[in-house]
Design a protein that fits this description.
The complex is a heterodimer of chains A (about 120) and B (about 150).
Chain A (H helix, E strand, L loop, with lengths): L2 E8 L2 E10 L6 H13 L4 E12 L1 H16 L3 E5 L3 H9 L8 E2 L2 H6 L3
Parallel strand pairs in A: 2-3, 3-4, 4-5
Antiparallel strand pairs in A: 1-2
Helix pairs in contact in A: 1-2
Chain B lengths: L1 E3 L5 E8 L2 H17 L4 H22 L7 E8 L3 E7 L26 H8 L2 E6 L5 E11 L1
Helix pairs in contact in B: 1-2, 2-3
Classes of the chains: A alpha/beta (about 120), B alpha+beta (about 150).
């Protein structure tokens, strides 16, 4: 099963809803990379990644989150994470990345935090 | 350590192509055996991820996607332990060259977390150079008979 992505706009924040498995390959982490690049090309620099429906993520997926964070930040934008399930949260904690990201559990609060 | 039902011992071996599809196949194979051995959902997820990371290393870094090279995957369960061995036919690498992904200077790297995750999720993890060339990794999850 690959990853599925859809984008919605809430004010000036782009919410990227991610479902499925973020694993190595064009249908996995590659899709996430392209979606983030497309948003930046459109000038959208406030990005909230909703990972609530992500069932699985591997080291390539983790790398893509790091890459996305760095790219968006270096472009003068902000990338934040929303709705991490236990598996993703555990992975970010053991890789010491949990505190690198701004992680939210409530979408409205996450949207407000961009302002 | 994992809990174990009194499942019959099982051993399977496959020679897979050096493709990303084989990564999925190996994960499915290992998780299937682990499931029949009575491992928990949590352990199945950990084994699946550890096998995936090992397979990616074998296919991508070891065999470099070569159509002439295979990856050997052996999965075995016994009352004491669940074991997966994955061997590639690549040129091998220096085990000391793997950087610590938790070091502050490596934290924001976009790769290099695979072996760390395997070690985190399995009870034992060994790597060895094969005489025939290539690298073999052994992943073990200990079982507790009830």
């Amino acid at each position: 099963m690959s990853v599925n992505l859809s984008t919605r706009q809430v004010g000036d924040v782009s919410v990227l809803d991610v479902t499925g498995r973020i694993t190595l390959g064009e249908e996995g982490s590659g899709k996430l990379r392209k979606a983030l690049q497309d948003l930046l090309k459109e000038g959208k620099k406030k990005i909230l990644l909703n990972l609530g429906e992500v069932s699985y993520i591997d080291s390539s997926g983790i790398g893509e989150l790091v890459s996305g964070f760095t790219t968006v930040t270096n472009s003068g934008g902000m990338l934040k994470l929303l709705n991490l399930n236990k598996r993703v949260k555990d992975l970010l904690q053991i890789t010491k990345l949990y505190t690198v990201f701004d992680v939210h559990e409530d979408e409205a609060a996450a949207i407000r935090s961009f302002t | 350590m994992a809990e174990n039902s009194k499942a019959a011992p099982e051993a399977v071996e496959r020679y897979l192509d050096s493709t990303l599809e084989s990564v999925d196949n190996a994960e499915e194979l290992a998780v299937g055996v682990a499931q029949r051995a009575g491992l928990s959902e949590e352990d199945l997820m950990k084994i699946g991820l550890a096998v995936r990371e090992s397979m990616v290393n074998a296919v991508m870094h070891g065999n470099r996607y070569s159509s002439e090279k295979k990856v050997r995957v052996s999965v075995a369960s016994s009352p004491e332990k669940f074991t997966v061995q994955i061997a590639d036919e690549g040129d091998g690498f220096s085990f000391d060259s793997v950087p610590d992904p938790l070091a502050p200077e490596n934290l924001m790297r976009t790769s290099g977390r695979g072996i760390f995750l395997i070690r985190s999720f399995m009870d034992d993890f060994q790597m060895r150079h094969l005489e025939s060339g290539g690298t073999e990794v052994t992943l073990v999850k200990n079982l507790v008979s009830k």
